[in-house]
Write a structure and sequence with these properties.
CATH architecture: 7 Propeller
Strand order of the largest sheet: 3-8-9-10-11
CATH class: Mainly Beta
Largest sheet: 5 strands, mixed
Shape: globular
Structural class: mainly beta
Number of domains: 1
Strand content: 35-45%
Low-confidence stretches: 1-41
Helix content: under 10%
Radius of gyration: 20 Å
Length: 399
């Protein structure tokens, strides 16, 4: 099925490939050409938005602000995040800012021209954490921005570091997971897995729950690591490589896991959406949906944007399909967020789309910028935040 296989060439979806082993740029080009069989027309055109669309709800802009330069169209996981009641925003040129959620006022910002931020911000243990393209993790005090420590890791950091119970967990692009001392940045433990020769550019950010770090890997596996020792409490396969080419055999778990109670929800590329027990990693249910995006959970449902940009709602208890919205196919829709009984996504033309969480109907849309939206919208409690790749941040509230 070409429409499925073309998603493996994720450059066309705004996702860059990372190469490992003896893979070269020319051989990758040959693989891509073979996958498409020189048929450029195989790429499906983005769905056209209906010009006569009428919103059925009102959404008010509370405030807006441009902070830094965003990700400048690079496919980077520089997603604003709420830490200790503040919103933290980073751009690829080394800017990190703390913002008041109610007003958008910047309370502190730091510009470091000597780094390129590539993953984060993340936080925990009173820290705001950011990863760089040259393999550094930078920890600052979340309240003031004061530099606390800088740690060197083995390769670029493409996902947000996270901290809890005195340990900062960092996932690197070469398949390693570091456990660092949150007070000093010293390495406490290292968990290492080999990386397939061809992967999607990007990694799953660790999710910390009590004394566990839940981490996805490029080989299609999800593991729970003990925060104190780094040892795997459980390790479960979500997808097994299949197909003739390296492109077809990609099974990356690039989506951040979602933990709700005793269940972990996660998606994999060329694999499935799954619910697992956080206790032992036993799979409770699976659905054959391929995605490299984070899931959202709320209202008794699991929401996922698949590799073609269709948005699904699944029953949280058994994975059965409740609805599917395909009006945004091939518009490079972001990961969904669940907010006040709505499901919200961004797209490549800077639109934010609001869907009724119960039915999947699109009830509102607004273009917040001319540049694409890569980061999923952010649930900030009282407001929903949209963030464009050029750095425009908009706080919205349904009325």
């Amino acid at each position: 099925m070409r429409s499925t296989r073309l998603a493996a060439a994720a450059a066309l979806l705004g996702v860059l490939f990372a190469l490992g082993g003896c893979e070269t740029m020319s051989s990758m080009g040959d693989s891509v050409a073979g996958l498409f069989e020189d048929d450029v027309a195989a790429v499906d055109a983005p769905a056209v938005l209906a010009e006569d669309f009428q919103s059925s709800i009102n959404v008010e802009e509370v405030w807006s602000k441009r902070i830094g330069k965003g990700s400048d169209e690079f496919y980077l996981k520089l997603t604003p995040t709420v830490i200790d009641g503040k919103l933290f925003v980073a751009d690829f040129e080394g800017k990190l800012a703390a913002t008041d959620l109610a007003t958008g006022k910047v309370t502190w910002d730091i510009q470091d021209k000597n780094v390129q931020y590539t993953g984060g911000p993340g936080g925990g243990d009173g820290l705001v954490l950011i990863g760089t393209g040259d393999g550094r993790v930078i920890a600052r005090e979340s309240a003031s921005g004061k530099l606390l420590w800088v740690a060197k890791v083995s390769s670029e950091v493409l996902a947000a570091p996270r901290a809890g119970s005195g340990t900062t967990v960092v996932r690197t692009g070469d398949g390693k997971v570091y456990g660092l001392d949150s007070a000093t940045g010293a390495t406490r433990w290292l968990y290492d897995l080999s990386v397939p020769s061809l992967t999607l550019r990007g990694t799953s950010a660790p999710v910390i729950d009590d004394d566990l770090a839940i981490v996805g890997f490029d080989n299609g596996r999800l593991a729970a690591l003990d925060l104190r020792s780094g040892k795997a409490v459980w390790d479960s396969p979500l997808a097994l490589p299949s197909g003739r080419s390296d492109l077809e055999r990609m099974v990356d778990v690039d989506a951040d896991p979602v933990v709700l109670g005793a269940t972990v929800f996660v998606a994999s590329f060329h694999g499935q959406v799954a619910a697992l027990s956080i206790v032992d990693g036993q799979i409770q249910w699976t659905r054959e949906i391929s995605s490299y995006n984070e899931l959202a959970v709320g209202g008794g449902r699991v929401y996922v944007t698949d590799e073609d940009g269709a948005i699904w709602a699944l029953d949280r208890n058994d994975g059965n399909s409740l609805w599917k919205q395909d009006a945004l196919q091939h518009r490079y829709a972001t990961a969904p967020v669940y907010f006040n009984n709505y499901v919200v996504v961004g797209d490549f033309e800077g639109y934010i789309h609001w869907l009724d969480a119960a039915t999947g109907d699109i009830v509102y849309r607004e273009q917040i910028d001319d540049s694409r939206i890569i980061a999923p919208p952010i649930d900030a409690g009282e407001v929903l935040l949209g963030y464009s790749s050029s750095g425009r941040l908009v706080a919205m509230q349904p009325r």
